[in-house]
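Hi U.,

Before I forget, here's the chain from the pilot set. I'm dumping it here mostly so it's searchable later in email.
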Amino acid sequence: IRLFNSEKELLKLLGSSNIMQVSIHSQPYCLVKSGNAYYLINPTCPHSNYPMSDAKTNAQGEVVCMWHSYRFDLRTGKEKFGRCNRLGTYPLVETPDGAFAVSLTI
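Structure:
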């Protein structure tokens, strides 16, 4: 699914934040920037359903739920210490024409 026509468009939407909630085909996700990579993640923590739009990213490529500090690897969705189910993570890929797209199972 093509989401953005350019990185500039993507960054304009994110503004100064690294995480924000978005809707793709009427389904909620969170858009996440981590370093030079972008992801969509499921909107709630699989541990306690806390909104991931309140989460933070860290230098280890993880997104950290602010409720109980569960840390999820953005590449795999695995929680750092295996304390709960995986978080759904979907990497955005840059297409040859500079757009950003994602593969989702909806």
